Structure formats: C-alpha cells, structure tokens
Amino acid sequence: MTKKNPNLITVPLEFKVACTIYHITIQEALQIFIYYCTLYHALNSRYNQYFDEANETLFRYLDTKRPGTKVILREEDEVQQCILAIVEEAADCGYDFVLGRRRSTKYVNRLFKLLGRKFYPTSRTLYIDEETPLQLSKDFCVMCELYGCHPAEFLEHYMSMISIADAETRLDMNLQNYNCSMHFFMDTTNIFLDDHQERFTITPEESDFLQQAGELRLYLYTIRNFPQRKALLQKFYQEYYQSNNQKQFNYAN
Amino acid sequence: MQTNINIDLPTDFVELCRYSDETPEAVFQSFANQMSFPKFLTTQDRNERLATYFFIEHIQSPEFTGEISESLEDHYFPLLHTAVKESFEKYPNDREKAMKAARKVMKLWSEAAVAERRRKQDDDM
Known about the structure:
heterodimer; A: 2 domains; two-stranded antiparallel sheet; about 65% helix
C-alpha cells in the first residue's frame, strides 16, 4: 500500500461531478454503496437488484487486479464453514432475501471476529477528508478480508467507474458497454432522491446549466468520435462543478 | 431556390402570426435562413444556433419521416468540422470563408446521400 494515510480515500473528479449534479453528497453515495455490498448476496446466485450490481463491482475489480485467481482467499476450516452456512441459508430462503440476510448476519459476525484485520483499517471508519467519515459495515470489512483488498481499493474502483459524461456519450452513440457500477449509482441515487424531495429545488444557475446541457447534447450530435464527444461533455460538467464549488466557497467565506 | 410548401398551419401558429401581424412566409423564411450547419458551426451565439438545434432534435425525433445514412454522417461531420477549423486557422475571424468551406462539404454530402438512396432504390427493384 503506497497510500500516505490508509484511512483516507481519494475521490476522483468525475465522481464529485456526478454527486454534485445529482444532489447527493460523496459520503451518502459511498455509504449507499457500502450498504449494498453484502456477503449474503455475493454468495447467492439469485438476482437481487442493487445488491448484485454492488457486488459485481467488487468482483470486476478483483478480476482486473488479479485475473484468474480465486475470489475468496481464506481457506481456514472455520471460515469455510461460515461461508457454507451462508450458501445454505441462501438456498433455503430462496427469494426471501430479507429473511436470508437476517439469518446470515450471525455468520457474518462470526467471520468478522475470525478473520482479523489484515486488510481493513484498525477502526471501521474511513475518511473522505478530515471531517467526513465513512462507516464500513461488518459485511464490507468481512469481504475485504476474504477477497484480500483494502476497503479504499474497492471504493476507489467504484468511484472510478462513475462518469456521467461517459454514460451519456455511450447512450447517445448507441455504444453498448454494460457498466454495473454506473447502473448502481443511477438507480440507487434516484431512490435516495425520492426520499429527499426537498433537494429537487433548482437554482437559477442550475436551470441555466440544464438548458446549456440540453443544447450541448444537440451540438454533440455533429461530433462523431467517441473520445472527442466524451471529452467535450466532461469539460462542460467539470466547469459546472468548479463554478458551483467556487460559489459555495465564496458563500462560506 | 423557390418552392411552394403545402402545410397545415396549427391554430397556435396562426394566432401568433395574427397577433404579431407577421406572415407565415416571413416566419418560415427567417427560420430557413438560420437552419444551416455552416452557420451553426461557425458561431458561438446560441440564438444563431436555435434553428439548427431544432433540426438536430427533429431528425432524432419520432416525427422524423426522412432517412439518414449514419455512415455518411460519420464521414461528413468530421470533414465539416475540419473544413471550418482549417479555414479559421488560415483566415482568423473571417466567418464568410469558413461558411463557404463548410458549404462545399455540405454539397458533397447531400449529393452522396442522394446517390446512396438511388443506389438503394435500384437494388430494391
């Protein structure tokens, strides 16, 4: 690990941009992701929306980090027993995911004690910056130990997969490339915002931004090259993010 | 080029013309003057782009009844951008020259599109 402070995660610009545009804080977005990463669903072959996309994000990271190797690295008997027990619960509970998750909690707790803390930080708190903590679930910590990754690696990978410019360009150009992380981000953010209707208030600046965005997407129709089109959209969104940030900074001072 | 167009004027449109004492011909003429890729690509003024924005929106809408060859778009749009860019590099601030360069590309493009449609019709027969 080459990080200066292993408890501090690096947030890519594109992720900040996406959070700003969708009225969600980085902390909330990551906390939602952590919530949906569960060992129960990772070990369950039945599809369950959001949980599967979140877990798929972890698997895809592992696949790029160490392709062709085992996902679960720990082979102690007791660990294997817990994993087997969860798989059995998954088979027993069928599509009753809530029941299955509840029943598997005790095994996750046991794993949490058994596995020790090789890969995740000593406390279950990571930091986005000095003042913004991120609470890791036991599930998430257990998966980090089983998969042999620091939580920051997973979170940073998830964030690196989020780009509104990329998703919109692909959509407009009919380029199919399934990005489970982006799907997860969009879907869960929409659900989250449904519960926070108060955030839908649009400022005059934002209304201008939305109008300009609409026009830009029409202009981009004349650009037929994917990287070029994406770069223009990226620049536009980043400029909006920066001006938005500057404004908040001015208000604060 | 002069043409007679036969279209239904919706009530809302007629009322706008009536209250402003403007003729439908003048409205459409002004619109037609602005609907242009050479103009669109050589200006930063959004008002000058509005008619072409409308056109781009239209060709992607369900109301579009024409036929567009994507491969020709992929070929000619970059040529258009390059023609405008090169012209501005050679003659900075000379919009007329840039539009002229773009119009040359547009002419080739529309001819290629017509030829392609003809070829398709012949194949179908």
